[in-house]
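for the writeup, i need someone to sanity check this before i put it in the appendix. the sequnce is what the collaborator sent (i think, or maybe the updated version? ugh). structure was predicted straight from it, no edits. if anything looks off just tell me and ill rerun, i have time this weekend
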Amino acid sequence: MTTLVTQGFTPPLRLADFRLAAFDMDSTLINIECIDEIAAAAGKKKEVAAITEAAMRGEITDFKDSLRRRLTLLKGVPVSALEQVLKERLQFNPGARELCAALKAAGLKLVLVSGGFTFFTRFVAAELGMDYVRSNELEIVDGQLTGGLVLQAWGEICDGEEKRRMLLQCAAEIGALPSQCIAVGDGANDLPMMGAAGLSVAFHAKPKVREQAMVAINEGGLDRLFEVLR
């Protein structure tokens, strides 16, 4: 397969035509699925990872249900396991820092929208200079995960539809059109926001996502996007 595939447009596009870029986190900006690594620390990686993989491929279509099922398996996991994942396992994917820095320098607003957790998105958002963040907050009582989530002002679970809503809401807030937005992801729950954006980018993505994206980066780093964006 070609390492970078484009469809539905003729490269290059003008970076100046875009005003906002929204990113998934797990397996897109960073190298891991945080929930799988938390599960590994708890000795339950196999069960949790199997559900994650099926959800990412789009075989489990109800992301909220799949997330609740995985969280139930993590009940009782200590917060120290999350700290261990952040310190020892989480790394930025190649090109993530470079791409975000270049987009910010060009005046774009950056949005982090994740079906993952605030424990990790706070760190990633601060490192990459994100302007907006939306993700799920793990409920922690007495230093342990309860297996549930904290209800936030916008809702409880950031799924595909919530990612799409967040992209459109942030765009409206800065007076940008959906066509002036870039959406980058790798899993099935990124498809709604990718479908709403003017430029959709699949990064080392599941087949279903690669097929529907305007740009598919199948090898190399996120900064390869600049091969089609000038």
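Residues 160-173 form the longest helix (14 residues). The CA atoms of residues 19 and 175 lie 9 Å apart.
thx in advance!!
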